[in-house]
Amino acid sequence: MNGQNSTGTPNYPPYKETIERPLWSVMIPAYNCASFLKETLYSVLAQDPGADQMQIEVVDDASTDADVEALVATIGKGRVSYFRQPQNVGSLRNFETCINRAKGHLVHLLHGDDRIRPGFYGKMGELFTAYPTIGAAACRYAYIDVWGNDRQCSDPERPDDGLLDNWLIRIAQQDRLQYVSMVVKRSVYEHLGAFYGVTYGEDWEMWVRIARYYSTAYTPEVLAEYRGRPESISDQKMATGHALRDLRSVIYVIQNYLPAEYKKSVLRHSKDVYVRFGMYGAFNAWKVSGNTNYILSTIREAFRLDSGLSFYRIFTKVFLKIIWYNCTPHKVENVNMATGPVFLSDTKRIE
């Protein structure tokens, strides 16, 4: 990417090919998730409208866990293209590559460990047709564990299909979406630029940025599945406290997108949400691992995020939970962190 746009972020150049473009670009960033990528690809191929309508491509950030190219060739049988970074470039640069390589008018960034449910592309297409001026469309989504079992669903943002009301303020208060549930026009990425700055919460900042300039359509149908797994970037950063450090940065960037009269209330709301999110997430991480560093590092970052009454209230609750947990038979619970049942990165499960 070259230069910057009015938002101060790096540009995505417009797609310049003169050949006819597909409607869809399903871009699948992948890094060391080969054990899940098969499910991801099958979920897309089951809805494939054909190469003239949909580009499907895996963008591999130099994975070391498997021969990803061979896996894609076996499952895709020539239908799914493959691009490998010459070296590991990190998630933000890999997303950048995905969008730069996208040929379609509508871009779906589908992480290599997530899945979509039947009807996803049909419904998303209907929303863009019904509301042609929108910049993005989203659906309700389910949380799944490492085995693919449903854990819970996100709260619906509205009861029926339509435009999201007061969306800039609502999405600025806390992240309500996942990559897997969002489809964005390529022209919107060209206008607003790249994911940048942090590797946790970068999607939240992008959804707010989009809401600042465009409307978003939504369906309450559960058509996407976000997989929580402890080895993911999100859960690793949650467990070490780095997630709250990134979120603190994002919260203040988001202030730049808000009308002056909403800034103070949104800031207060966001701090309260993510202090609770961090502290309860660390408590859950400690329960399944016994690693007290998860608690200590998150306490430090939570205090930096908000040193007011909210922090002390949540700290007291978590401290009492730790004491209770240590004084009950639950202490003997032994859950493998590789397959544990908690979602450390789930912003909804904070109590």
Full CATH superfamily name of the largest domain: Spore Coat Polysaccharide Biosynthesis Protein SpsA, Chain A
CATH topology of the largest domain: Spore Coat Polysaccharide Biosynthesis Protein SpsA, Chain A
Encode the helix/strand succession as letters: EHEHEHEEHEEEHEHHEHHHHH
Based on secondary structure, the structural category is alpha/beta
CATH architecture of the largest domain: Alpha-Beta Complex
Apparent shape: globular
Estimate what percentage of residues fall within beta strands: 15-25%
The CATH C-level name of the largest domain is Alpha Beta
N-to-C terminal Cα separation, in Å? 42 Å
Number of helices: 12
Q: Are there runs of 5+ residues with pLDDT below 50, and where?
A: 331-351
Q: Percent range for helical residues?
A: 40-55%
Count of all domains:
2
The largest sheet is: 10 strands, mixed
- The counted number of beta strands is 10
Q: What's the mean pLDDT score? A: 87
**What kind of oligomer do you see?**
single chain
Taking all Cα atoms into account, the compactness measure Rg is 20 Å
Keywords: Transferase
GO molecular function, one term: transferase activity
Protein name: Glycosyltransferase involved in cell wall bisynthesis
Pfam family, one: Glycos_transf_2
Mind explaining what this structure looks like?
With about 350 residues, this protein is an alpha/beta fold. The protein folds into 2 domains: about 25-225, Spore Coat Polysaccharide Biosynthesis Protein SpsA, Chain A (Alpha-Beta Complex), CATH 3.90.550; about 235-330. It is about 45% helix and about 15% strand. It has 12 helices and 10 strands. The protein has helices spanning about 35-45, 70-75, 90-100, 120-130, 165-175, 185-190, 200-215, 235-240, 240-255, 260-290, 295-305, 310-325; strands at about 25-30, 55-60, 80-85, 105-110, 115, 135-145, 150-155, 160-165, 180-185, 215-225. Strands 1, 2, 3, 4, 5, 6, 7, 8, 9 and 10 form a 10-stranded mixed β-sheet that branches. A hairpin with a 5-residue loop joins strand 6 (about 135-145) and strand 7. Helix 7 runs parallel beside helix 9 (about 240-255), helix 10 (about 260-290) runs antiparallel to helix 11 and helix 10 (about 260-290) packs parallel to helix 12. The radius of gyration is 20 Å and the shape is globular. The relative contact order is 0.12.
